Amino acid sequence: MDQILKERDRLLQRTARAFGLAFTAVAFACLAAPGSVGPTTLVLIVPLFAILAFAQYRLGVSRALAWIVVILASGTAILFVVVTLETDTPTAGAAAGLGMLMSFSLASVAVVLASGRYRIPVLAVVVLTLGVLAVVLLEPWRPLVHSITLFAVGWSSMTLVGAWVVAAVPQVARRIASIGRAHRAERHASELEAQRRQNARLLHDTVLATLTLLAHSGVGVAPAALQQQAAEDARLLRQLRLGATPTPDRSGQYNLEPVEETVLGTTLESVKQRFGRMGLEVSWHGTGQVLLPSDVLDAFLLALAECLENVRRHSGVTEAHVTIVDDATTVRAMVTDAGVGFVLDDVDSARLGFKDSVVARLKEVGGQARLFSSPGSGTTVVLEVPR
After folding, report:
1. CB atoms inside a 10 Å sphere around CB 231
2. What distance in Å separates the CA atoms of residue 320 and residue 271, rounded to the nearest whole number?
3. How far is it, in rounded angstroms, from Cα 357 to Cα 351?
4. What is the rounded distance in angstroms from the CA atom of residue 130 to the CA atom of residue 45?
5. More confident residue, 238 or 287
6. Quick one: which of 133, 68, 138 has its CA closest to 106?
7. CATH number for the domain running over 259-386
8. Are the CB atoms for 108 and 130 separated by under 8 Å?
9. Gap between the Cα atoms of 259 and 274, Å rounded
10. What is the mean pLDDT of residues 325-331?
11. What burial class does residue 264 get, using C-beta atoms within 10 Å of its C-beta: 0-12 exposed, 13-18 middle, 19+ buried?
12. Which of 14, 159, 188, 270 could hold 110 in an S-S bridge, CB 3.0 to 4.6 Å?
C-alpha cells in the first residue's frame, strides 16, 4: 500500500507540473504579446516567470511545500509588477495573461494540496488569500463578477482534479488486489486439478492395474511376478501416506528417486522385462538410440507402458510389437497387436486408461496419440513426441 501511495503522490506532482507549466506558458504569451505591457514591465516579469516555471518543474519531482511557496510568491510578484507599472488603461492581453496566471497557473498547486491532512487547511488559506488579492487588484482590469468567476472556476477545477486522483487510486489498488486474489485462486485450483489428475494416473497405472489382476485371479501372470508387483504398490502407498511425492519411473513404475536424462534404448528393456514377467511378449523394432529431454522421455515411455498394459489386458493375445522411428523433429512409437480389436466409438469417454494416461500425458509435453482399431483386426496406437 505504501508503494501505491507513493505512486499516487508522484502522479499528483506530475499532473500539477503539466497544468502549471502549460498555463504559465499561455499567461506569459499573453503578457509578452506586442502592446500588452510596457518594455520595463516585460523586462521585470521575465525572470519572475523563469522562477515560476522552474518551481513548477521542481514540484513535479518533490512535494516539498517550499516549491509551492516559491510558485505562489513568484506569481503574486508578477501580478504586483504588472498592476503597479501598467497604470494606463489595461490591454486585453495583459488582462488575459493575469487572469490565466492567477486563476489557472497558480491554481495548479491545488492538485498537490488536495492530498494530506495538513495540506487541506493550507489550500484553504491559499485560495482565500489569493482570491481576495486577485479580486482587489484585478477589479480595475476586469468586471468584479468576471474576476470572481474565473478565479473560482480555475481553483475549483484544479482542486477537483487532485481530489479525483486521490479518490481513484485506492479504488484501483483494491481492484488490482482483487484481480491478484482471483489469479492466485485460479492458479491454486489449477494446481489442485493437476495434482488430482496426476494422482489418478498414478493409481490407475499401479494399484488399479494390480487390483485388476487380483480380480481375475492373476490369470496369465506368474504368482512371483504378481507378488512383486503388489509389494511395489504397497511400498508406493506407504510413501504416499508419509507425504512423499513419487516420481514416475520410465518402466511404468514409481519411486522417490529423481530420474536423469538418458538414451531411450536404455529404458526400453526395463519395460519389456516388466511385461514379460506378466505374460506379454514385447518385440521391439527400429531405433532406440534417441536422446530425449527427461520430462518428454518420461511421458513417452509411461504412455507406451499404458498401451502395452491395455494390450495385455484387453487384446486376447500374448504378443505385441513396438516400432520406434524418429526424424529431425519427432519420435514415434507404434504399438501393434493382432488381438480382438474394438469399435472406437464404443470406448467409454470417462475411462482414464487411454484418455488420461496416454493422450493427456503426451499432450502436456507437446505430443499426441492416435488410435486405430476395428473388431477382429487388432489395434495400433501411434505415439508422437517432439525431440
Report:
1. 11
2. 12
3. 10
4. 19
5. 287
6. 68
7. 3.30.565.10
8. no
9. 18
10. 87
11. buried
12. 159
Nearest partner of 115 among 18, 16, 20, judged by Cα: 16
> Rounded CA gap, 69 and 49, in Å?
14
Residue 153's nearest CA partner among 96, 204, 103, 211 is 103
Look up residue 22 and give its amino acid: A
Helix (H, G, I), strand (E, B) or coil at 15: helix
**Are 135 and 147 contacting, i.e. CB atoms less than 8 angstroms apart?**
yes
Whole-model pTM: value is 0.46
Nearest CA-CA partner of 78 in 112, 32, 14, 113: 32
d(CA 236, CA 244) in angstroms, rounded, equals: 9
The C-alpha cell of 304 is what? 507406451
C-alpha grid cell for residue 144? Answer: 468584479
DSSP 153-189: HHHHHHHHHHHHHHHHHHHHHHHHHHHHHHHHHHHHH
Cβ distance 382 to 332 under 8 Å?
yes
Q: Give CA–CA dist 300/385, Å, rounded.
A: 7
Residues 6+ apart with CB under 8 A from 132: none
Q: For residue 336, what is its C-alpha cell?
A: 501393434
Residues in the chain: 387
**β-pairing verdict for 319-326 and 281-286:** parallel
Query: What is the distance in angstroms between the CA of the first residue and the CA of the last residue of the chain?
Result: 47
Quickly state the pLDDT bin for 370 (edges 50, 70, 90): very high
CB 132 within 8 A of CB 85: no
Residue 63 belongs to what H/E stretch?
none
Boundaries of CATH 3.30.565.10 in the chain?
259-386
How many whole angstroms separate alpha carbon 291 and alpha carbon 183?
A: 37
Pinpoint the alpha helices (H) of the chain.
Answer: 2-32, 39-59, 65-85, 92-100, 109-113, 119-138, 144-205, 207-215, 223-241, 265-277, 294-310, 352-354, 361-363
